[in-house]
C-alpha cells in the first residue's frame, strides 16, 4: 500500500513512513494511493465482533508490511485497554431513528483517544525498531493536545510540544494539558487562535532544516494514521444497526474535517452510508463552502464548542484532492489562494462534494437549546460539540438510521453544560483532583522563530 501527497510533489511512502513523516514535504497531506474495498460478506462478518477485532480487520489492508498481524493485534489491544466502556464506542438511542455514538470513553474523554492511543502504540513500536528519537509538535483547539500528551507522556525517546490558543480552550482541557508532571510534556499557550497554532505547526514542517534537525513528527490529523483509526467506529456502529443490509447515515460535528473524512473513507471502503452530514458551529466555513461553492475564511469566532473553532480546515484538502480528480497541482493552486483568504471551488468538484456531503450549521443559542432538550427528552447529557451534531442531524433524518457522533464528554465543558441545563456534569473519579494539580505552561507569541527556539532549547538541540 503506497501513500501519495495531495499536492503531488512529495515522495511516495509506505504506511509506516507516512505515519512517522506527518506533513508531506510538498506541504500536502498523505492519502492512500487506492482505498481497499471490503466485500458485503466481509462487512457482514464484523457484526457482533469485539471492537478490537473490527479495528484489526478494517485497518489491516492499509498497513502493508509495517506491522505483522500478531504485532498489530497486540498494539490494538493495548491501545483500547484503558477505555472505560467494554464496547469502546457504545450506541445509545435518542429517538425513533436517531442514535448517538459515544466516543468519549477513552482516557481523555474525547474521540481523539481512539486514534491517539493507537498511534501512540504504533509509533512506540516503530521507534523501538529504528532506535530513533522524535519531537512531536501538535496544534490543538483543546482535545487533540490532551489526547497526544496522554499517549506519549513519560516516554524517553519522544518530546511532545502542544500549541493551544491561549484563553480559548475550556479549563478542563487546559488542565489536562498543563498538569502532567512528565518532563517530556511541553504545553505552550499561544497568543492566537487554533488556525494560528495549526499554521505554525505546518510552518515548522515546511522548514526542512528545523524539521530534520529536531526529527519532527506530527500527531494532528495531518497524520494519515489518525484518520485511519477513526474509520473503525463508522464500521462498528453501522454493522450494529444492520449494515451492510441496511444503509445508515452519519452526522459529524466538524472542525478540522478529520473525523468526517474518516467516514468518507469508510464509504469508499464499501460501507453503505446514505448521508454524511457535516455539522458546524458558528465557525461555518465548511457549511458555507458546500452551499455556496466559496471556501472563504472570515476569522475564528470563539464559541461554546471551542474544539470546533476552526476556519482553515486541514483535511478538507484531502476531500478536494479527490474532488479535483486527484490533481495535485490543482490542489496546490487552491492552497496558495487560501493563503490570501479563500477560493472558489470548481463546478465539477463542487458537484462531487455536494453529492458526497450534506451540511448544516448550529448557532450558539441552538447549541444551548439542544443540550437542554436532549436532557429533558432522553436523559442524555451532551457536550456542546455533540449538541451541534444532534441539532444538525435533526434536519437530515431520513429512512436510514442516523448516527450522530458524540465527540466529547460533557464534563470537559462543565460551564457551558451547566448554563444550558442547570446541572454540572462531574468528571470521572480518576480525574477528580484535576483542579488541585499544579499547572505548568509557557505563554508564547504567535511567532515561528519564538516557538522553534523553545523547541530547540527544551530538547537541547
Ligand atoms: C469535541 C470535538 N468535536 C469535534 C471536533 C471536530 O473534529 P474534526 O476536527 O475531526 O472535524 C473536535 C476537534 O477535532 C473535537 O475536539
Ligand atoms: N479539534 C481539534 C483540532 C485539531 O484537530 P486534529 O484532528 O487535526 O488533531 C482539537 O481538539 O485539538
UniProtKB/TrEMBL annotation:
In Pfam terms, one family for this protein is: PALP
Q: Which residues form the Tryptophan synthase beta chain-like PALP domain?
A: 97-331
Write down the EC number: 4.2.3.1
Look at the named UniProt entry and state the broad enzyme category this protein falls under: lyase
Q: GO MF terms on file?
A: pyridoxal phosphate binding; threonine synthase activity
The reply to whether Lyase figures as a keyword in the UniProt entry is yes
Q: Which reaction does it catalyse?
A: O-phospho-L-homoserine + H2O = L-threonine + phosphate
Record-annotated Threonine synthase N-terminal domain positions: 2-80
Entry-linked SUPFAM superfamilies: Tryptophan synthase beta subunit-like PLP-dependent enzymes
Q: Write down the NCBIfam families for this protein, in alphabetical order.
A: thrC
What protein family does this chain belong to? Belongs to the threonine synthase family.
Q: What is this protein called?
A: Threonine synthase
Q: What organism, scientifically named, is this protein from?
A: Paragemmobacter straminiformis
Amino acid at each position: 500500500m503506497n501513500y501519495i501527497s495531495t499536492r503531488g510533489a512529495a515522495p511516495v511512502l509506505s504506511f509506516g513512513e507516512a505515519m512517522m513523516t506527518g506533513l508531506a514535504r510538498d506541504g500536502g497531506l498523505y492519502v492512500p494511493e487506492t482505498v481497499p474495498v471490503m466485500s458485503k460478506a466481509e462487512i457482514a462478518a464484523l457484526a457482533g465482533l469485539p471492537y478490537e477485532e473490527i479495528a484489526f480487520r478494517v485497518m489491516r489492508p492499509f498497513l502493508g508490511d509495517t506491522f505483522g498481524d500478531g504485532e498489530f493485534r497486540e498494539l490494538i489491544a493495548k491501545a483500547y485497554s484503558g477505555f472505560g466502556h467494554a464496547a469502546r464506542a457504545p450506541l445509545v438511542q435518542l429517538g425513533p431513528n436517531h442514535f448517538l455514538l459515544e466516543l468519549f470513553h477513552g482516557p481523555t474523554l474525547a474521540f481523539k483517544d481512539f486514534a491517539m492511543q493507537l498511534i501512540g502504540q504504533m509509533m512506540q513500536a516503530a521507534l523501538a525498531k529504528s532506535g530513533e528519537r522524535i519531537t512531536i509538535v501538535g496544534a490543538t483547539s483543546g482535545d487533540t493536545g490532551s489526547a497526544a500528551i496522554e499517549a506519549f507522556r513519560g516516554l524517553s525517546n519522544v518530546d511532545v510540544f502542544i500549541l493551544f490558543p491561549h484563553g480559548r480552550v475550556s479549563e478542563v482541557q487546559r488542565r489536562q494539558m498543563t498538569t502532567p508532571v512528565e518532563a517530556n510534556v511541553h504545553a505552550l499557550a499561544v497568543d492566537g487562535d487554533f488556525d494560528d497554532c495549526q499554521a505554525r505547526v505546518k510552518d515548522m514542517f515546511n522548514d526542512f532544516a528545523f524539521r530534520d534537525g529536531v526529527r519532527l513528527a506530527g500527531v494532528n490529523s495531518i497524520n494519515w494514521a489518525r484518520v485511519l483509526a477513526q474509520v473503525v467506529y463508522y464500521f462498528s456502529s453501522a454493522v450494529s444497526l444492520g449494515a451492510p443490509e441496511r444503509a445508515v447515515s452519519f452526522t459529524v460535528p466538524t472542525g478540522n474535517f478529520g473525523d468526517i473524512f474518516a467516514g468518507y473513507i469508510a464509504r469508499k471502503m464499501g460501507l453503505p452510508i446514505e448521508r454524511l452530514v457535516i455539522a458546524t458551529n458558528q465557525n461555518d466555513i465548511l457549511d458555507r463552502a458546500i452551499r455556496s461553492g466559496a471556501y472563504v475564511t472570515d476569522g475564528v469566532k470563539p464559541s461554546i464548542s471551542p474544539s470546533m473553532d476552526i476556519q482553515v480546515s486541514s483535511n478538507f484538502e484531502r476531500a478536494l484532492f479527490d474532488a479535483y480528480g486527484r490533481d495535485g497541482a490543482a490542489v496546490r493552486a487552491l492552497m496558495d489562494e487560501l493563503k490570501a483568504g479563500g477560493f472558489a471551488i470548481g463546478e465539477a468538484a463542487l458537484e462531487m462534494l455536494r453529492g458526497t456531503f450534506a451540511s448544516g450549521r448550529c448557532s450558539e443559542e441552538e447549541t444551548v437549546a439542544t443540550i437542554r432538550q436532549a436532557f429533558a427528552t432522553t436523559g442524555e447529557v451532551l457536550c456542546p460539540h455533540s449538541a451541534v451534531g444532534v441539532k444538525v442531524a435533526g434536519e437530515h433524518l431520513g429512512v436510514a438510521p442516523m448516527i450522530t457522533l458524540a465527540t466529547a464528554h460533557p464534563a470537559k465543558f462543565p460551564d457551558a453544560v451547566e448554563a444550558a441545563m442547570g446541572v454540572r456534569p462531574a468528571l470521572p473519579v480518576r480525574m477528580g483532583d484535576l483542579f488541585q494539580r499544579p499547572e505548568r505552561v509557557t505563554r508564547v507569541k504567535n511567532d515561528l522563530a519564538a516557538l522553534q527556539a523553545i523547541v530547540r532549547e527544551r530538547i537541547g538541540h
